[in-house]
Specification:
Helices cover 24% and strands 21% of the residues. With 339 residues, the chain is α+β, with helices and mostly antiparallel strands. The strands form 3 sheets. Strands 1-2-8-11-10-9-7 form a 7-stranded mixed barrel.
C-alpha cells in the first residue's frame, strides 16, 4: 500500500483503543475519458468561470461557497463557518456498533477504502481489531467525516487488511415504490422449471474472467486512428425478434447456453423432462424435441401443420386425427376427410 497515496489520515476509535490509520482508495476507475473538442478544427473546448454580476472571468482564489435558499437568495458559507462545527468524527472513524453483515442493505453500499495501519505503533491494535472481526463474523458500523460531510461506514476484513465501505444514510435509499409491474402476473411451474434449467446451464462464473469488452473496443479504435489506420469494423449486434412466447424464449435460451458450453445436443432432452413431474399434460414434451413445449397449446386445440412435422406419432395415438397422422405425407391432416 506504500505506493498508494492516502486521502485521509486519522484514527479508528475502538472503545478506549485508538488505532492510527491512513485511508486509501480500494478501487480504481479504468474508464476511458474523452475531451470535448471543436469539431471544425479539433481545438480543445474549455469551460471558464464567470461572475454573472461583473460579467468577467474569475480565478479560483476568488471563489467560495454559498447556499442557495428557496427564494434564490445566496447565503455565503466560509470555511471558518464549517470548521467551527462540533463534529467529533472530523479525524476519527468512530465505531458505534458491531452487527452481522447480512444486516447491511447492499443498496447502502458506496465507495470502498482500505484502512492502512499508521506506522509500527498501530500494528498491534490494528491486528486486534482485525482478528476480533474475524472471530465474531460481524462487521463494524462507524461514523467518520470526509470532504466536509459526516458519513456512515462499514468495516470488514479483506484478506489481512481492514476495508471500509462508505454507506448511504438509511434515509438516502429510496423505497422501491412503483417499480414492480402494476398488473398481477401468474408464473407457471413449467416456466419456473425452464428458468431453473437456464440458471443451472449458465452455472457459475469466476469474476476474474470477466472484462470490459467495450473499453477494449474503444482502445482499438483509438490505437487505429492514432496510427492513421481505419478503425476496425464491428459487426452490428443481432436484433432479436419480439418475444411472444415466453416458454419458447426460455427453451431457446437453454439451448443456446448449452451450445455455447459445447454440450451435446441430446442433453437438451433433459430440459424437456423438467415439467413432466408437474402435470400429466407435459408427458408428450419428453420426446418432442425443442419445439414440444411451445406447441402444447396448439395440440390441445387441434392438429396443425407444425405438429404434424414432429416425431410424436405414438404420443398422439389418442387424438381425433390419429388415422391421418399415420400417413407419411406432411399434409396428412388435410387429407383426413377424403380418406
Amino acid at each position: 500500500m506504500l505506493h498508494v497515496r492516502s486521502i485521509w489520515n486519522g484514527a479508528i476509535s475502538f472503545g478506549l483503543v485508538s488505532i492510527p490509520i491512513k485511508l486509501v482508495n480500494a478501487t480504481e476507475n479504468h474508464s476511458i475519458s474523452f475531451r470535448q473538442i471543436h469539431t471544425e478544427d479539433g481545438g480543445r473546448i474549455r469551460y471558464r468561470k464567470f461572475c454573472e454580476l461583473e460579467d468577467r472571468e474569475v480565478t479560483g482564489q476568488e471563489i467560495s461557497k454559498g447556499y442557495e435558499d428557496a427564494d434564490g437568495t445566496i447565503i455565503p458559507i466560509t470555511d471558518e463557518d464549517l470548521a467551527g462545527l462540533p463534529i467529533p468524527t472530523a479525524r476519527t472513524i468512530e465505531i458505534v456498533a458491531f452487527v452481522p453483515e447480512d444486516r447491511i442493505d447492499p443498496l447502502q453500499m458506496d465507495a470502498a477504502y482500505y484502512l492502512a495501519a499508521g506506522g509500527a505503533p498501530a500494528a498491534k491494535p490494528y491486528t486486534l481489531l482485525r482478528e476480533a472481526l474475524k472471530r465474531s463474523n460481524k462487521v463494524a458500523i462507524a461514523k467518520f467525516a470526509l470532504r466536509g460531510k459526516e458519513r456512515l461506514g462499514m468495516l470488514r476484513v479483506v484478506g489481512d487488511a481492514i476495508a471500509m465501505h462508505g454507506l448511504l444514510w438509511p434515509d438516502e435509499v429510496r423505497a422501491p415504490e412503483g417499480v414492480a409491474p402494476d398488473s398481477s402476473v401468474t408464473v407457471r411451474d413449467k416456466e419456473l422449471d425452464l428458468a431453473d434449467a437456464l440458471m443451472d446451464t449458465l452455472g457459475e462464473v469466476d469474476l476474474e474472467d470477466l472484462h470490459d469488452e467495450y473499453r477494449e473496443a474503444v482502445e482499438e479504435v483509438i490505437a487505429a486512428k492514432a496510427s492513421g489506420e481505419a478503425p476496425p469494423e464491428t459487426p452490428a449486434p443481432e436484433r432479436g425478434g419480439k418475444v411472444l412466447d415466453l416458454m419458447a424464449a426460455l427453451e431457446n435460451s437453454v439451448r443456446a447456453a448449452r451450445e455455447s458450453r459445447g454440450e451435446e445436443p441430446e442433453e437438451e432432452a433433459e430440459v424437456k423432462r423438467l415439467p413432466q413431474r408437474k402435470t400429466s399434460r407435459s408427458s408428450p414434451k419428453e420426446t418432442g424435441g425443442k419445439k414440444s413445449t411451445s406447441t402444447t397449446k396448439k395440440t390441445a386445440s387441434g392438429a396443425r401443420k407444425s405438429t404434424a412435422k414432429t416425431s410424436q406419432p405414438e404420443k398422439k395415438s389418442t387424438a381425433k386425427k390419429t388415422p391421418a397422422k399415420k400417413t407419411p405425407a406432411k399434409k396428412s391432416a388435410s387429407r383426413k376427410r377424403p380418406a
